[in-house]
Design brief:
alpha/beta, Rossmann fold, 2 domains, eight-stranded mixed β-sheet, 14 helices, globular
Length: about 575
């Protein structure tokens, strides 16, 4: 359903003199303004309906509503959202189904992306929101979701009828609505279906076309969520996952009404002896939904701004500035360190911007990028922060002046992605982006008239690599190639590298690979590689990830290492 605009009266100034003509123009302008306001107010009453569909990482597998309390930015999302209508059919053999339209809330304790999506959109849009969700784990596009020849659980016809019935109920209630978007997260199971991986792009294109046709909405916008490379499948099925991502990108590139939504950097459930998992889990699902909200709000021009200008340049003209570059994966990004946890004690000072330190960053592989230089402060995704805050505070506490900090992270990567040779998943090769980022930061400081010293690269060793044998086996060799090539490309053969290492995964299948010993040997033969064994970091409640206390301690340890080296 679409709204029709009121017709603007014409001819108000025809044949009039100059002053009369001006009054006529003004009158028309006021009418136009009034019509625009009326349309906006009227549109705010139209329910915006979103469809969420896919497999297990759309369902909310391995999530627990009771765990939402662990993640302060998402507090309250375990409670019903009374203003949001919700219709759902979730599961395969045994389905969980709503009874008509209900209030949006977790379904049987499971957390789906729709919870955070609705909250974030409602903060920026006055119009009421409705969610229709149809999802089932272990299903594939080639069969279950095939609109032409559905097989298996035959989800396409089921989903289509479910959507039609939900909309029909709105019609019966005389509720004005508009189908606003279709959120799709699926693809893992097509990696295991013969021929499905190669046909994924064609199948997805057909899937989208059929939904638009069958719902009678030819301009329906689709949001295709990236498969999460932070899971175990991001390593042991790397080539296959890459092929699916290429197919999804191809469809998004060819269709201006399809958005590819990055999600590989979001949190992932910690499970199993090695800590690796297949599903987003609670935190990842909440962030997954936030990504869809950001993509939708961007498409309608209402994405919240993140402006943090550095109002006064902190360094004297022509002075020397020492630049430190932080780099890494999950913990360098700060996956589970939340600014809300810094409210008490001395750590609360880390929440305040420090305008004496110029800071620039690229997080999540470019998902959030600073606007040039900003004051050092909390800038992480989803109200998170990394060790840069306590690192900067440590140097400031020792009166180290003229320090700038740059940080490049992608928590959905493994060490091989940072090597100059990369892997078969070529779009995940971040080395060129990282080197260009360092060069750009250095060049910008020089253009401002400063002598620049690159004080060192501070890299936290890849966490996921420690839990997967083939990657743990090659971790140090990959690191060495990264370090060696970076020095060549930056023209700094004696560039200091500070490599911090948390306690490696303790699990039978990987314990025979002595990554710590190999890293110590590398440091012994490289006088400019400083190996920091940080095996007693606090706040590591689960394998792989550090929480707030551990991230603060990591930054302080990096600061101590730099101070010792100066």
């Amino acid at each position: 359903m679409s709204l029709r605009a009121s017709r603007v009266p014409s001819g108000a100034s025809v044949g009039a003199g100059p002053r009369a003509a001006w009054r006529g123009v003004l009158a028309v302008a006021l009418v136009l303004l009034g019509v625009g306001v009326a349309r906006a107010q009227d549109d705010d009453k139209v329910v915006r309906v979103f469809v969420f569909a896919g497999q297990s990482n759309m369902v909310g597998a391995d999530s627990r509503a009771a765990d939402i309390a662990k993640f302060p930015p998402f507090a309250g999302l375990d409670e019903p959202q009374e203003r949001v209508r919700f219709s759902y059919c979730i599961g395969r053999e045994e389905k969980r189904e709503s009874k008509g339209w209900e209030e949006l809330q977790p379904v049987e304790g499971m957390v789906g992306p729709e919870l955070c999506f609705a909250r974030d959109v409602a903060r920026q849009v006055k119009a009421p929101i409705a969610i229709i969700k149809i999802a089932a784990g272990g299903t594939h596009l080639a069969g279950d979701w095939n609109p032409d020849e559905p097989r298996g659980f035959k989800l396409y016809p089921l989903a289509l009828q479910w959507v039609r019935d939900a909309l029909s109920e709105l019609d019966k209630r005389k509720v004005r609505y508009r189908l606003e978007g279709f959120m799709w997260h699926q693809g893992e199971n097509d990696m295991f279906e013969d021929g499905a991986m190669e046909k994924y792009a064609a199948n997805l294109e057909r899937f989208i076309a059929c939904w638009r046709r069958d719902l009678g909405v030819p301009q329906l916008r689709f949001y295709v969520g990236e498969l999460c490379t932070k899971t175990i499948w991001g390593m042991d099925l790397r080539p296959s996952m890459y092929k699916i991502s290429v197919a999804q990108h191809a469809v998004a590139d060819a269709d201006p009404l399809v958005d590819y939504v990055p999600t590989s950097h979001v949190g992932v459930e910690i499970g199993g002896d090695g800590g690796l998992h297949y599903h987003y889990g609670t935190l990842g699902q909440l962030e997954h939904g936030a990504n869809y909200a950001t993509a939708y709000l961007r498409s309608i021009g209402k994405e919240p701004a993140h402006e943090r200008p550095l109002k006064t340049w902190p360094y004297a003209p022509k002075s020397k500035v020492t630049l430190y570059v932080l780099a890494g994966h999950r913990n360098m990004e700060g996956e589970r360190a939340f600014v809300q946890d810094l409210e008490k004690g001395k750590q609360s000072a880390l929440r305040r911007d420090n305008a004496d330190v110029a800071y620039r960053y690229s997080l999540g592989g470019g998902y959030r990028v600073s606007n040039g230089w900003e004051p050092l402060g909390p800038t992480g995704l989803y109200d998170t922060f990394g060790p840069e805050l306590s690192f900067g505070a440590k140097l400031a506490g020792k009166k180290v002046a003229n320090v700038a900090i740059a940080k490049w992270t992608h928590s959905g990567t493994q060490i091989v992605d940072w090597t100059p040779q990369g892997s078969e998943a070529v779009t995940r090769n971040v080395y060129p982006q990282f080197i260009e980022f360092v060069r750009a930061a250095t060049a910008d400081l020089r253009e401002r008239g400063h002598e620049v010293e690159l004080g060192g690269i501070l890299y936290h060793l890849g966490e996921n690599d420690m839990s997967f044998g083939p990657f743990r086996q090659q971790a140090v060799a990959w690191l060495e190639s990264f370090v060696t090539q970076s020095r060549k490309d930056l023209g700094l053969p004696e560039l200091d590298w500070y490599v911090s290492q948390q306690r490696p995964t303790d699990e039978k299948s990987v314990n025979g690979i002595d990554v710590t010993g190999e890293l110590a040997k590398l440091a012994a033969r490289d006088p400019h590689l400083i190996h920091l064994k940080l095996f007693d970091l606090p706040g590591q409640e689960e394998q792989l990830v550090l929480t707030t206390a551990g991230i603060v301690a990591l930054g302080e340890a990096l600061g101590d290492a730099v101070l010792k080296r100066r």
